[in-house]
């Protein structure tokens, strides 16, 4: 006969039965959602060829580890109910130790790959040649740690895997092992991810400044040589903006017309044109007077608005960190979202365990936060996968449903490694259209930086 659940999970935290049931429900719901979400990722990746780009491949490998973590979350407290030394409890703890922390490892690997792409101009396709090395590190590292802890049996402290309050994992008597074999490594991965993206941001900022400096210098040279023609062109074409002109024409007889006063010259003259106007002479002498009114220039109003200046300054700063290359932009976007999901997932759990290590207890609110966010790793990966690949998945579904002609589906782009690529395709107007180009050659990847480097050299 198995002991009651409240006895099996008794701990210094003194959780009540209702609190334990709440935590169990959160674990199983989150684990089930992630497991279903991961299945969607696998199906979409297998059926939609355009979705098989490099960043989605990283997500798929990370999702494999989410399967093991989701199964461990669904087990919940059943392992503790059976006993810490049972196979179910030890298996659950092993799954947590190996697969739960594998997700941050893949996040760091993706961030490092982004650094290689931006700093060393390495094509993302190189990942396909080194996928075995990524898997060896991101799966092999956690596996060695998890297996080593499982094999420790003769310690005076007992088994390493045991009661972790909300599931079977590293027992409370091994609190130091929790930190050094798990959370410290995760924090290193998170810190490495943040540093990598900071380096990429600095690189983008510096590269855009070089390109802008080159463009400004060329513009000045062109402006100096074509100064006269540019002035004439500006007089004929007018100025920026739209001026609404109201013309009132009065026709009177020349004999009854009073001699007008001398004209007053304004300081700022604006050229006005009247397209389509034709003057026809008549037999009787006639005179025409016109009254022209126009609202103040929009540009002048904007200059008077202080908010416009602030917004313009913010846009100017933000534009310095934008990526012009659509392929790099799509690749960086997916990587940043993946790294952000890791932060959202692991910050509450890390705070919980650090608090438990320092103070010797773990509050119920911290336990609930950990049980709510940790099982959702697979769900967040699914959201990122479909948000960044929605256009490709949507087009494939419409094609299979017969709502899109085969030619249109094929022309939208299939992720292959062809070396001859139309240059116009690399300048897609939206990020969704770029998804099909992410797995192609490095010709497009080096376009912007090559232009900037060539410009600086000139």
UniProtKB/TrEMBL annotation:
> Where are the annotated segments for Disordered?
258-277, 405-440
Q: Where is this protein primarily located?
A: membrane
Which keywords has UniProt assigned to this entry? Membrane, Transmembrane, Transmembrane helix
Composition bias (Basic and acidic residues) maps to 420-430
List all membrane-crossing ranges: 29-48, 57-77, 104-120, 132-152, 182-205, 330-348, 368-393
In this protein, which residues make up the domain named G-protein coupled receptors family 2 profile?
23-205
GO biological process: one example: cell surface receptor signaling pathway
Gene Ontology MF terms in the entry: G protein-coupled receptor activity
Gene Ontology CC annotations of this record: plasma membrane
Pfam families to which the protein is assigned, alphabetical: Dicty_CAR
Indicate where this protein resides in the cell.
Membrane
Q: How does it sit in the membrane?
A: Multi-pass membrane protein
Report the PANTHER family cross-referenced here: G PROTEIN-COUPLED RECEPTOR 157-RELATED (PTHR23112), TRANSMEMBRANE PROTEIN 116 (PTHR23112:SF0)
Question: What protein name applies here?
Answer: G-protein coupled receptors family 2 profile 2 domain-containing protein
Per the UniProt entry, what species is this protein from, by scientific name? Metarhizium anisopliae BRIP 53293
